[in-house]
Structure formats: C-alpha cells, structure tokens
Amino acid sequence: MSGDIVEALVRANLALAAAIVAVMLLRKPVRRRLGPLAAYALWLAAPLCALVSLVPVRAPTAMTFHQTVALTPKALATAAAAASRPFGVADGLVLAWALGAILVFGLLALRQLRFVRAAGRLTPLDGAPGVLRGEHVDAGPLVLGALRPRIVVPADFAQRFQGEARDLVLAHEDIHLRRGDATINGLVVALQCLCWFNPLVHLAARALRVDQEIACDAAVIARHPHARRLYAETLLSTVLTAKTAPLGCHWPAAGPHPLKERLTMLNAASLTPLRRKAGLALVALAASVAAGGVWAANPEVTPQPIVSKPVWIQKPGITDLDRYYPAQAKAEKLSGRAVIGCDVTPEGVLHRCKVSSELPAGAGFGQAALQLSQHFRMDPTLPDGKPAGNGWVNIPIQFQPPR
C-alpha cells in the first residue's frame, strides 16, 4: 500500500509540475490575446492533469486463488504464527509526506488565525450589512474565508473610499464571491498541503492569485468602462501589506510588482463578449487535450496471472474457532462447511469478504467464516515473485466442533 501511495504521489506531481510550467509560459500571451479570464481559467489544467494521472489506462484483472483451508482441530493446532512485515523505505516516505502535509497545514492555519486576530473585531458596515469592517486600517479590502467567505474592509473604509470609488471596491469583492474565487483558493491551499514538497505548486499558487485579481479587475472595468482612471487611482490608494491570509482573496495582491501588472492591464482594450467566450472555449479545449495526453502517458496496468497456490503466513487458531463457532451448532456438536470470497490487499490482508455458500444452511457457519477471515494473512509475495495484492481468494472452511 505504501509503495502505491508513493508511486501515485510521484506520478501526480510530475503531471502537475509539467502543467504548471506550461501555464506559467502561456498565461501572459493568453491574457493579451484572449483576455484575463481565459488566463485565469487556464490554471484549471494543472489540477486536472494531476487527477487524470491517477486514472489507470486499463483496470486490473483480479487474481483468483484456489486453496481449501480445513479448520479441523488438528490443522488449527499446527497453524503457523503470523510474520510481521518490516517497516520499509516506502513506509518512511509516506510517513514523511504525511507529517509534512500536517506541518504545512498547521503553518497555514496559524497564518490565517494571526490575520483574523490582526483584523480585530468585525462589525457590519453602515449601509452594507453584508460587508464587515475591521478594527484596523490594514484589514482589507478582501474576501476572507473559504467555506463561508465574507467581504472585509478596513476601519477607515468610509473615509478612504467615497462615492463611485466605494462602489468599485465593493463590486470587485462581489465578483470574487460570485465566481467562487474563495473556494478555489481553499482548494489551492489544500493542494499546497498535499504537495508541500513541490516548489512549483507554491509558485503557481501566488501566480494564480495575481491572475485572479487581474481577471476580477477586467470584470469591474467591463461593468464600469468609464471608470478606468478612477479604478486605477483606487488601486493606488490601497495599503500594500505583507500580511496575507491563506484563505482569502486579497485586494491588492501583496507586493508592488503584481500591482504594477494590474495597472498595466487596465490600459488594455476590453474584449468583446464573443472573443471572451471564444477564449474560454479554447482554454477548455487545451486543458482537455493536455489531460488526455497525461492519461495516454499513464502506465498500462497489465492483468495479473491466476495463482493457484498462495502462501499463508497466518491462519486462525483453535481459540479463534472456539470463539466464533456458532453457539447452537456447538451445543448440538454439529459440523459444517462455508465458502467465503475475499479481496486481497497488497499486504496480504483479506477484506470485503462475502459468503459464497454454507452447509447446512442457516446454521451460522457463513457468519462464523466471515469473522474468521480477519485472522488470515497471505504472504504479499507469491512463490513466483509476483505480488499477491489486488486479487480475490476463495476459502472453503470446514468446521468441526471442538473437543
């Protein structure tokens, strides 16, 4: 199981890294030709390629194991003890990945908590009950949160932004809410936690937020084409702060360079609605082609051969038989037989077991066999060196009353 997790992580991050590099190279040309919204939508190709890389080209064919296990008192008395699987390199890598993901999640959660505390007590803004005002001047404007995002503005919002400038700021944040940008940023944070070791993911998260803000700027200008100059002046009057909330849409993005990039885009001519729709369609087509290419490059899953002689390293003991033996059958000294079918994990453990047949019917031997299945353990490696995982085993179990 650990080896499968490591393989999936490597494959997904390779696909994710390739998609991020492609998007980083294309985002600015796409923005100039097809508009800011198309450049923002282009980022959907990255997680799509990562997910597609986990889809197998062909589903594996389950192995079928045929081995009769007679649980007579004599056989139970001579059953071998379980052999524990040693802690391997793959287990260590999975453990390190999990600890790293937890650590990054904790750091981002701490940043979010510090930002919320720095904003102070949030109160409804006069004249806009859906907007919250912070206690300090650097608390916004932004959309804060992911599951229940809210618009948060600084304490001096009413004095700094008046008239149409106030409407432009609130329109910008309202577009974030309507597009679901806060939820998208939450998914980006989750991806940063899962792929904490991939520097391209953190670089892409910052670039995505810049494209997100530029796309929002373009939407505001499309609604208020006469307010380009006022909107640019409003951007310049905002406070540049290094404090950021991982879960939130910041306005403006931290740092002078993204702000300069946004001001430059305000001078670009607005695209026609038809061209914007064509741009989104082309981006969707490109993302689909990229995802198809990743899927085609996935390793083909070859069917595993049928194995007739698995190696059992653990079987139920005589005490297990006595514990699960049907009470009524034990009292009547009734023997019986049940056949169960189980999936086999890569570690050789049986799971998702079902009763195929039982004799005599209704005596409880089928349920007893299901309970005994948890005490079986198969050698993960078959005698021919092939893995025993992802297979299916039929186990006929013969019950004899304990003496």
Structural write-up:
The longest helix is centred in the first third of the chain and has 33 residues, at 2-34. The chain has 2 domains: 2-54 and 86-297, no CATH class; 64-85 and 305-399, TonB (TolA/TonB C-terminal domain, 2-Layer Sandwich), CATH 3.30.2420. It has helices at 2-34, 36-41, 45-52, 73-77, 89-119, 157-160, 164-179, 181-194, 199-223, 228-236, 256-266, 273-297, 318-324, 327-331, 365-372; strands at residues 64-66, 69-71, 123-125, 128-133, 142-144, 150-153, 248-250, 312-314, 336-344, 350-359, 377-378, 391-399. Helix 1 (2-34) crosses helix 5 (89-119) and helix 7 (164-179) crosses helix 9 (199-223). The chain has 403 residues and is of the alpha/beta class. 51% of the residues lie in helices and 14% in strands. Strands 1, 2, 9, 10 and 12 form a 5-stranded mixed sheet that branches. A 5-stranded mixed sheet has the order 3-4-6-5-7.
